[in-house]
Amino acid sequence: MAVLKVRTLPAPVLRQKAKRVTTINGSLQKLIDDMIDTMHAVHGVGLAAPQIGVSLRIAVIEIPEREVITLINPEVIRRRGERVVEEACLSVPGYYGEIKRSEVVKVKAQNRRGKEFRLTGEELLAQALEHETDHLNGVLYIDHVETPDKLWKITSQDNQTFEHPII
Ligand code: NI
Known about the structure:
Number of domains: 1
Bound molecules: nickel (II) ion
Shape: globular
Number of strands: 8
Oligomer: single chain
Radius of gyration: 15 Å
Strand content: 25-35%
CATH class: Alpha Beta
CATH architecture: Alpha-Beta Complex
C-alpha cells in the first residue's frame, strides 16, 4: 500500500495525452492498488494515472455505496443528454466550477485483469466517467468552464460536499 503524491497544475503530465496500456502485469496491479489507496487518502471520487505522474490510460472511480471501478484504456462510446453540474478536481486544488456534463455516459474499458467490459453511468458516475477519460486526454474540467464567473474558490465550509464532488 502506498499513497502517492497527487500532481497539481501546472504539472505538464496533466496536459499530456496518456499512453494506452498494453501489458497487464504485477507492477501495473501495484500501480492500480496505489491509485486506489491514494484516491481514498485524499477523499476523491476518482483518480487518473496522470494525476500521480504516470502517463498511462488508467483510472479508478469510487461512487458512494459502490465498489471501486478500475478502468484500463477507457473510451467513451456513447453520451446522452446534458446537465449542469458543479465539479472540482484533486489536481486543481481550492476551486470548483460549473460546467455541462452528459446525463448518461457509456464507456468500454478493460478491467484490472484485462477483460473488456462496458459500463453505463448516470449522475455522479456519468460525471466521473467523463472527468476521468478527460484526464487521460490532458483535459481538465476548467477547460469546460464557459466563463470565469463560473469558477469559484472552495471555502473550508463547503469543501467535500456532494454538490461539487472532487473528481
Ligand atoms: Ni480530476
